[in-house]
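User: Structure tokens for this complex, please. No commentary.
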Amino acid sequence: MEHSAQFNKSIKIVSIKSLVFSTETSTSYVEMTPLKPLSLSAFTLCMRVATELSGEREVILFAYRTREYDELNVWRELDGRLSFYLAGDGVLFSVPGLGPLESHLCVTWDSSSGASAFFMNGRKSVAKIYKKGHTTRPEGKVLLGQDPDSYVGEFDAKQSFVGEISDLNMWDYVLSDTTIKDMASGKRVTTGNIFDWESTRLHIHGAVDVVKREL
Amino acid sequence: MEHSAQFNKSIKIVSIKSLVFSTETSTSYVEMTPLKPLSLSAFTLCMRVATELSGEREVILFAYRTREYDELNVWRELDGRLSFYLAGDGVLFSVPGLGPLESHLCVTWDSSSGASAFFMNGRKSVAKIYKKGHTTRPEGKVLLGQDPDSYVGEFDAKQSFVGEISDLNMWDYVLSDTTIKDMASGKRVTTGNIFDWESTRLHIHGAVDVVKREL
Amino acid sequence: MEHSAQFNKSIKIVSIKSLVFSTETSTSYVEMTPLKPLSLSAFTLCMRVATELSGEREVILFAYRTREYDELNVWRELDGRLSFYLAGDGVLFSVPGLGPLESHLCVTWDSSSGASAFFMNGRKSVAKIYKKGHTTRPEGKVLLGQDPDSYVGEFDAKQSFVGEISDLNMWDYVLSDTTIKDMASGKRVTTGNIFDWESTRLHIHGAVDVVKREL
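Assistant:
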């Protein structure tokens, strides 16, 4: 009994949802409702992601679109690089590719300096200066699984996400490198103030399975 | 003196058995006796495994068969992917291949959601939905080293295991990701309630060496 | 409130500058002012560095030159090896290459034994004996980003640094392996007595962005 109590104390288990996109479709996606408007002059976006997609294939990882614009898209590019786009041309990073074993992925951006970076399993990429002074527009939709070419619609199966996404959190500021490293190694040090995966509501459309996993 | 005692306390050495299958045969295998019947609606199966087999070669990693059915088989497929089969068609995972350096391998499955995944050295694969609602049948035999095409018999050397297997544990529930990561990094946080490698009885048939190793 | 205080206490955040060299130039560089003259019979030089440069390309990582001599240059060589040069022929180390995800890099040298080594993310290279009895000359200039072929001038774009450098510290003695390992894993155990990145003055020339990052 005491041993068991000891055991439960030292390993705190957190149960979270995980999204499984099993097949390539132009119809399956998940919409997420943010805790505050996405009028952002800085952000940190993190997720755990695994995919068996390989070869020359674009993969959408996160899409935020208002009626008129793609406000914030995160992609794996055709050549395997990771990128994000704020309303126009994007910025690409030669970060070793996503793969079939789960990666902890973050992207950070700060409008005041334009500094942006990817973090793969806690390791930071080269910083790149991108869209200094820009602010994203609020009142759009956040989708996982598909890239909308209009306001929630016109999906292209060849850009869809296939694999598993979980533990997506988003903040309206830039987290410290140490905090990101701690999260990558499994410590639950903070949850997002725009998206908090443990409490966020997921609106499932099409063939997306929601499974539970224990971290 | 005190320093030494301190040292011994912090590094606990566990001595376990390890199975060495030195050559390709259709006759060598090890039978394991479970602690409870394998009537499973969920499981976690872990082992440490190394093999110099390479190229296009099926390799059986774990076989549980009742008189009529292959209930649970774990394979490395011809193309290097890992897979498992519950009484019929299986589910395949593009997990980087087993090799000559020892890997810590786990597979998890939960009937209620159908969620299944492989873990390679603590890193989780894409989850896949498989055999939701299924339960395995009890009163079969568990074999390592050979795939029985009948109830313990009709072995095919070209599917046999060659290499080393140790520290195989099995649970009738799904362990948390953190627990699996801890085991992969060498922490002895829990042992199986179906197979507990430190106490399990091994019935050796043919040319299988049992060696001791210290973890 | 208390939770927040707790949180801030356990994760001490250090804010530092980071240098981003976005494009290949023969004009952009940063000059650093040392805290004491670089008349050195031993040193440890550490930095965090990431670069997307790949293929056959020399990359200057650190240059200290007096009017007449290249006193201390650290390079990535054409073939990817790391090296340093003390006024003449250098010493090369087959250390796995710098890349697009940030590495913590140190180089140590001690004149009395001639022992020198690189450390990549806390892992030590083979030691090599180099320039026993040598001392570097003081009163030169320290540059990041370019290799001067004269006293601050004659830069070659094909040797320039492109990427990000931060957290550069230098000591006039050899740090212990454990201290270097601790720094690589993010602990702020010591800062340099020749260059202390948290307080050093950076003189920017050309297109170098200075961004803030939180460790």
